């Protein structure tokens, strides 16, 4: 090396031991050179150091210890390393911090080396310093960003990967072991490993996206993998781009794989919730419509058939109102199970809402559909066991078929719905196929509802009364108030036509309140005229009975009319027994008022003897179907019912008495009262008043 030459590289620095040469370096205003004499401790620095340290070269030259006071305290261990290595004859390259006069901190890169004499003894140390503060800040920022980026990757279960088509090398980020249970080195050893863990059903999709990458286009694909070891299935979103050379040829791929299992599960849950009924787990109406549309599109132009069975539970509202929504929900759940068992794999069972279910049958003819409908009705003859409570509920079923009853989903469902209402109108617990005439019937029903509301508003209702007779002496002891509708357009409308509709629409409540008031007013009027004081019986629907203010409304009627409470008998049906506790509470409150309670149409519902005992009833009205059995081998049932009522200390009223044979049988078996055409048909208040005059 020439005596005037200085070699200064990133790895080492060398300087010829020549005083003139050293002085020239130190005198260079751009040089950042320093040299320390180990024998004297004297320190010399070049002019360029003044710019970095904001100190004059003279200050350093005059005070050799000044340099040491500038080191950042936390970096003194670095300074110690530099000095130790230099004294061992080694070159050094370190970074440390110094404190400037204004208190600011700068990063310094110090490249130093020992200087030897002819005997190879270390006599001096020297070096070059560089202000690397800006670089260091950038490096720190990059490190922070890299750490932040790594945290992001780890927080979203992200893996960065690259594949080199030329070498076959596959590189995965280090967190692959944590996310997928496979260390990143395993991918380097086996470049096909990822393909081996892709779910078999998703391989075709993955290959398709690989071909897209090979064409130089970006791609994004979501698929499943089977995690090695535990066999767990994970959902992966794989986003990738192609790597190209200068000739624009694809030489590899790179991308990120994100574990999206949780979001996918949430997405599937939301989708399930959107297309399934939350109570029963059955497909809902949206799911049904989607499947129905698919089948109609598939069947178009073919001879294939499909069927819609629209099912509604009879008396469901009554059960729901009497037992409460909890048991109503249990009934719906059990209904869903029964229908699913019956249908098996022949189609889809869906819940439309409320107590309505739809069965969608694929490739089925009329005879097969009819068999399924019969099977449903037969299965529903068995009671539902709802946590120990036995509940009976029957189905009304409407059936429409493709293509004859409709070409689109809306028409098919609507026509099946119309058929279901026709089944209800015909007596419930049956099925009906769609017929065009049902559209007219439905239209009439809508029209009747409108007219029914007008009737209530325009006072088109009136009461007829049927006498109740003491069987022992033939005297009239009471009357039953019976509702009639005298429509200006339809004439006298049968209660069988409008009462079920009033029940369904809720109009039965205000109509029932009107009946109660009119009946009590009429009886009080007869009492005031001095006629024999008879009782009056008023039928109350379960819907009205369950009204929160029912007892209060009865009390108000009695107060308003001035009728003594014990002359009023409220008739309720056996369905009251579906919710014993609430019914007992209402009955007890009515009894406190002095009102009498009777069970109407006894024997036609589902009675429990223990409940019958607990209800504290005054009367039992035996349904006419049992009276009609008099003279047959079934009349023992009627005798048993009379004996039962007598043992329970209740009065008995037999309904539907039509001849003397009925009267004699009932008298012989100690029945108290009777009513029916044999004694009198229902008639106007004036006709009853005439009877009262004669009896007086």
Q: Please identify, by name, the CATH architecture of the largest domain.
A: Alpha-Beta Barrel
Q: Domains counted in the coordinates: how many?
A: 4
**What is the number of helical segments per DSSP (H or I, 4+ residues)?**
27
> What is the level 1 CATH name of the largest domain?
Alpha Beta
Summing up helix and strand content along with how strands pair, one would put the structural category as: alpha+beta
Note the gap between the termini.
152 Å
- Strand order of the biggest β-sheet: 20-21-23-24-25-26-27-28
Poorly predicted ranges: 1-18
State the helicity in percent bands: 40-55%
Per CATH, what is the topology of the largest domain?
Answer: TIM Barrel
| Mean pLDDT rating | 87
The named CATH superfamily of the largest domain = EAL domain
Q: How large, in whole angstroms, is the Cα Rg?
A: 49 Å
Measured by DSSP, the beta-strand proportion falls in: 25-35%
Describe this entry's structure for a reader:
Residues 92-144, 219-272 form the PAC domain. Residues 304-436 form the GGDEF domain. This is EAL domain-containing protein. It comes from Bacillus mesophilus. The chain contains 27 helices and 28 strands. With 696 residues, the protein is α+β, with helices and mostly antiparallel strands. The protein has 4 domains: 6-138, PAS domain (Beta-Lactamase, 2-Layer Sandwich), CATH 3.30.450.20; 156-265, Beta-Lactamase (2-Layer Sandwich); 276-435, Alpha-Beta Plaits; 458-695, TIM Barrel. Strands 20-21-23-24-25-26-27-28 form an 8-stranded mixed barrel, surrounded by 5 helices. Strand 8 and strand 9 (170-172) form a beta hairpin.
């Amino acid at each position: 090396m020439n005596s005037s030459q200085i070699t200064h590289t990133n790895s080492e620095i060398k300087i010829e031991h020549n005083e003139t040469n050293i002085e020239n370096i130190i005198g260079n205003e751009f040089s950042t050179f320093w040299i320390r004499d180990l024998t004297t401790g004297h320190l010399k620095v070049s002019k360029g150091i003044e710019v970095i340290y904001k100190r004059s070269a003279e200050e350093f030259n005059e005070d050799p210890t000044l340099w040491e006071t500038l080191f950042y305290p936390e970096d003194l261990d670095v300074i110690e390393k530099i000095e130790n290595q230099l004294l061992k004859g080694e070159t050094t390259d370190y970074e440390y911090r110094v404190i400037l006069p204004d208190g600011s901190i700068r990063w310094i890169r110090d490249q130093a080396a020992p200087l030897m004499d002819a005997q190879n003894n270390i006599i001096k140390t020297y070096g070059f310093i560089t202000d690397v503060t800006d670089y260091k800040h950038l490096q720190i920022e990059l490190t922070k960003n890299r750490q932040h980026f790594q945290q992001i990757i780890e927080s979203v279960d992200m893996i960065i990967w690259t594949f080199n088509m030329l070498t076959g090398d596959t590189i995965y980020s280090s967190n692959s072991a944590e996310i997928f249970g496979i260390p990143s080195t395993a991918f380097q050893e086996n470049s096909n490993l990822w393909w081996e863990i892709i779910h078999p059903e998703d391989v075709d999709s993955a290959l398709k996206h690989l071909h897209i990458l090979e064409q130089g286009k970006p791609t994004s694909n979501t698929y499943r993998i089977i995690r090695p070891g535990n066999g767990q299935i994970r959902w992966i979103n794989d986003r990738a781009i192609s790597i190209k050379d200068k000739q624009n040829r694809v030489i590899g791929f790179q991308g990120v794989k994100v574990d999206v299992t949780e979001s996918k599960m949430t997405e599937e849950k939301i989708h399930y919730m959107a297309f399934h009924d939350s109570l029963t787990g059955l497909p809902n109406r949206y799911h049904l419509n989607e499947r129905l549309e698919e089948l109609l599109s598939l069947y178009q132009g073919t001879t294939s058939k499909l069927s819609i069975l629209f099912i509604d539970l009879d008396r469901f509202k009554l059960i729901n109102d009497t037992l409460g929504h909890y048991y109503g929900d249990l009934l719906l759940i059990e209904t869903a199970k029964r229908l699913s068992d019956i249908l098996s794999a022949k189609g889809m069972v869906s819940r439309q809402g409320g107590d309505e279910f739809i069965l969608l049958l694929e490739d089925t003819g009329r005879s097969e559909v009819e068999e399924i409908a019969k099977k449903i009705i037969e299965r529903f003859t068995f009671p539902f066991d709802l946590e120990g409570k036995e509940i009976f509920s029957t189905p009304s079923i409407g059936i429409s078929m493709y293509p004859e009853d409709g070409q689109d989903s809306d028409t098919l469902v609507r026509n099946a719905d119309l058929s279901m209402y026709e089944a209800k109108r015909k007596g419930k617990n049956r099925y009906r196929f769609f017929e065009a005439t049902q559209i007219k019937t439905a239209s009439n029903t809508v029209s009747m509802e409108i007219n029914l509301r007008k009737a209530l508003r325009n006072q088109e209702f009136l009461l007829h009364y049927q006498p109740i007779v003491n069987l022992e002496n033939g005297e009239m002891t009471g009357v039953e108030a019976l509702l009639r509708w005298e429509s200006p357009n339809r004439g006298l409308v049968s209660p069988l036509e409008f009462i079920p509709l009033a029940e369904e629409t809720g109009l039965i409540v205000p109509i029932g309140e009107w009946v109660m008031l009119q009946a009590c007013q009429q009886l009080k009027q007869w009492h005031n005229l001095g006629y024999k004081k008879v009782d009056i019986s008023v039928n109350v629907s379960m819907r009205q009975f369950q009204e929160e203010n029912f007892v209060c409304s009865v009390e108000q009627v009695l107060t308003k009319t001035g009728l003594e409470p014990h002359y009023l008998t409220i008739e309720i049906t056996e369905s009251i027994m579906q919710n014993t506790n609430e019914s007992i509470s209402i009955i007890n409150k009515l009894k406190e008022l002095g009102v009498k309670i009777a069970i109407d149409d006894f024997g036609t519902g589902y009675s429990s003897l223990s409940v019958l005992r607990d209800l504290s009833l005054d009367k039992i009205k035996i349904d006419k179907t049992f009276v009609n059995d008099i003279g047959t081998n079934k009349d023992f049932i009627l005798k048993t019912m009379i004996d039962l009522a007598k043992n329970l200390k209740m009065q008995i009223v037999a309904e539907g008495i039509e001849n003397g044979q009925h009267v004699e049988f009932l008298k012989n078996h100690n029945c108290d009262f009777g009513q029916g055409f044999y004694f009198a048909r229902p008639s106007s208040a004036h006709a009853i008043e005439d009877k009262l005059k004669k009896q007086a």
